[in-house]
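Why do we bother with holo predictions? Because pocket geometry can differ from the apo form. Keep that in mind while you read this record for iron/sulfur cluster.
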Amino acid sequence: MAVVPDTEETMKKCICGGCPSRNQCMKENMEGLFCAKGTTTCELIKNGCICGACPLTAEYTLDKMYYCEIGAAE
Ligand code: SF4
Ligand code: SF4
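The structure, written out:
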């Protein structure tokens, strides 16, 4: 597992935008890339996590999910 850099390039690859757990609050705050930026400031209701399908999961060998809840990958 590697630290995910918080860059424009990684932000573009993040697929949180299509996640069933992404809510209005996250949209309004333009939140995403939680594996680099850390937890959401929004209330989270878990409806599934699609991090497993994100290209960054393979690139940085991430082994967890729900980074919006658990915070940045270390
Ligand atoms: S692993 Fe999850 S939180 Fe990280 S960029 Fe991909 S979809 Fe977003
Ligand atoms: S970290 Fe996972 S659960 Fe949270 S918004 Fe991104 S894909 Fe969805």
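The radius of gyration is 11 Å.
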